[in-house]
Design brief:
alpha+beta; Multidrug-efflux Transporter Regulator, Chain: A, Domain 2; three-stranded antiparallel β-sheet; 22% strand; globular
Length: 274
């Protein structure tokens, strides 16, 4: 019975308790404790085995970091993760909460896609997509982009952007998107039809959490800090203050801030496909 559960998990890209514990270097009882206190919610198999997605594994790594390096207790860890989830669910128009999971589910159903097929196209597990739609998990930048691309739309459509163009955008008027990991994306233009300009602030040790691609071209200008950018998993470019970098968006790209201070950069996409 246990062997079939493991093989079934492997087929859909999920990890068992034992596999997850081994990767993290913790005991299975620790994983069960984190679940019992409400920090994480693994998927359950038909045989009621706990299964962990690759994306949830990244959350578990952060929990372990907060426990082992920052020396936080479980209430402290839960508070930090709770604040991250609150930030990730903010809307652009005044900070009121929105249900991103619900919107993604509506987009999927509008396209006539089942959960399994949508997850396959977005290159994530069906269990993780289900958790996102139920607001039990927060998608990364890469996951959001792949999901919205699968549904024929963009990340910005999740946040109900104003349709009316605006030539001048003051700093206080910028629309802002923040992910659970603290990555901040400030829109520098509203209504542009041929380009999308954003100010990115990437905290230390965070990044896209995976690669994504789409049509168009992109340009990055580094204002401060450092960013590692991988293209098609073949090229690794280290961008530093003052660097300008261009690439074709159809190349798979992922990025990460390796230093201990924020990376701040101007990021331009053309056409607006992010």
């Amino acid at each position: 019975m246990r062997k079939s559960a493991v093989s079934g998990a492997d087929r859909v890209g999920l990890l068992t308790v034992g596999q997850t514990a081994k990767i993290l270097g913790v005991s299975p009882s620790t994983l069960r404790l984190w679940e019992n206190v409400g920090i994480v919610t693994p998927v359950r198999s038909n045989g009621h085995y706990r299964l962990y997605s690759r994306e949830l594994l990244e959350v578990l790594k952060r929990i372990k970091y907060l426990r082992d390096v920052k020396r936080l207790n479980l209430p402290g860890i839960k508070e930090i993760l709770g604040k991250s989830q609150e930030v990730a669910s903010r809307r652009l128009d005044g900070g009121r909460p929105t249900d991103v999971g619900r919107k993604l589910r509506e987009m999927r159903k509008k396209q006539g896609l089942g959960l399994t097929e949508a997850a396959r196209r977005a290159k994530i597990s069906a269990g993780f997509l289900s958790a996102i739609e139920l607001s039990r998990a927060n998608p990364s930048v890469a996951t959001l982009q792949r999901l919205t691309a699968t549904y024929g739309t963009t990340v910005l459509d999740l946040y109900e952007m104003p349709r009316r163009p605006k030539r001048l955008v003051r700093p206080r008027e910028r629309r802002v998107i923040e992910t659970a990991s603290g990555i901040r994306m400030e829109l520098l233009s509203v209504g542009a039809r041929q380009l999308q300009s954003m100010l990115f602030r990437v905290p230390p040790g965070t990044g896209s959490d995976g690669a994504y691609s789409h049509e168009g071209e992109e340009f990055i200008y580094m204002l401060s800090g450092t960013l590692e950018l991988w293209l098609d998993e073949l090229e690794c470019h280290t961008l530093r203050e003052g660097d300008g970098f261009w690439f074709e968006s159809r190349q798979g790209h992922r990025w990460f801030n390796p230093l201990k201070k924020d990376a701040v950069l101007l990021w331009v996409n053309t056409p607006p496909t992010f």
